[in-house]
Structure formats: C-alpha cells, structure tokens
Amino acid sequence: MPQEVLSVNYRLTFLYTVALLQHKRQNYLSCVASGDASGYDTVARAGFGAAGVSTLSNRFFSTFAPYYRTADCSFNGWLLETRSGTTWVFVAQGATTVSPSGSGAQALAFGFEIVGKNSNNHVMHNPIYETNALDVNKYRDYSAMSATLKGAVDYYFNVGLTDINTDAYAWKRSRGGFFATRWLAVVTDTNEKLRRVRRIK
Questions:
Q1: Which residues is 84 bridged to in the sheet?
Q2: Is residue 32 in some structural domain?
Q3: Which of 56, 79, 101, 183 has CB 3.0 to 4.6 Å from 157, enough for a Cys bridge?
Q4: What is the CA angle 123-188-66, rounded to 5?
Q5: Which domain covers residue 40, as residue numbers?
C-alpha cells in the first residue's frame, strides 16, 4: 500500500538526547488557535477534549521516563511547526518538567516500535530509540506485558481504555489526517541506522 499523501498542517516533535545523540519523536496533528502558551490547542478525536499543545510533552515524557536514566539521557522539550507548501515553519517551542526515572543503562542502537493501524488501514509506526530495554522480541499479548509497556502502548492506541486528552491516541494523526484504530505489536530490536551512527557495525 502506498504511503499516505501528507495533508496535515501541524507537526509536533518531542526531543530527547541519549549519550550525546539527540532523537526526535515526530507527530502529526491538527490545531486551532487558543490561549495556550504555544498559541494552539489540539483538535481531538471523538470522545476526547482539546488540550493545549504546550501540555502534551509532559505526558509523553512521563510515559517513557522509565525507559531512560538521567546518567545517560536528558529530555529536551517540544517543537511545534506548521506546513507551508513543502516546508515546515517554526511556530513555538518549550521545555518539559519531566526527567528520566529509569535505572537500567541505555541499550545503544536498540529501541522499540509500537505498531498499529489507522482508520485508513495504513500502518502507524511509533519508534522509541535507545531505551534501557535490551532484547529482541515481538510483543502481541497486551495482558502479558509489564505495566510500563502497557502504558506505552496505551499512549498511542488506548488498548486499556484509560487514555486522557493529552495522550497521543486523542490527538495524533497519520500523514493523511487519520486517527489510530488498533494496536498490532511492540517490536524490540537493533536499529541499523543507529548502529552506523554509533559506529557499532
């Protein structure tokens, strides 16, 4: 199936650094002007309310904080951009008040990806890089996962039906503007691009 045509007009990036290498977790969304510190609120899916864009990063970093430790990692905040033709233009940025809370050493060039489908039946990839999870596996049984991993899956796909307005499930869209519908798996493995950057291979 071909990639969806890019039709959304806003991109929110969460920035974090592991062992001196900065990573980006980019998300598409729709926004409306508001009194939020960013100047914008999210346009949420049915059943959820709007949230100020400046409030979203704390939820993201709190969800993934157990996968990082302060000795290796720092959380660098968020960046909101809007699309002008083929160019992304700066709108606002800010810090996060959340810090890493994990204890295990970072597994360099490893990571995991939370994969599912959107309402247009396209795959949605949600990679998280260089966590403290050092294994190669595929998780498909939600009930058998740890509470921390369930929280990560719920953040994007709301399998446990506990999500709130600041979770990505409420506001994140695909390139074509579609919301997530179902979770498929969590895949943990090495990342070949990061192995090259880290000069591991």
A1: 87
A2: yes
A3: 183
A4: 105
A5: 10-197
